[in-house]
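Give me the fold.
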Amino acid sequence: MAKAMVVDDSKAMRMLIGKLLREIGFEVVEAENGKRALEMIEDEGVNVELILADWNMPEVTGIELLRKLRQSPGFASITFVMVTTETELDHMAEALEAGASEYVMKPFTKEILLEKLHMTGVQR
């Protein structure tokens, strides 16, 4: 089973996104911020094919997490979807330029998330 990581400082949002991902066939792991996500991926060897991360988090933000992963050849190919309340086009452009596969604005529906995942090539 493919594994996805949900990175958000809101436990409720991690639970919601995790539930949607499980419904479409992913095994899900969670991290409360980008620092913890990096520890899990780099230090603990957690292997994921998809990351959905919030932009605004303490310690290491979603955009910082994205940039760090894209700098590492071993993690550069992970599908990365920014899921955030940041609705300004500048933020969207910054995320896409940094290597985000897609950008989802909160609040969203299951259908929107599925459409965005389909656009990234993630098939479930």
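The longest helix spans residues 11-23.
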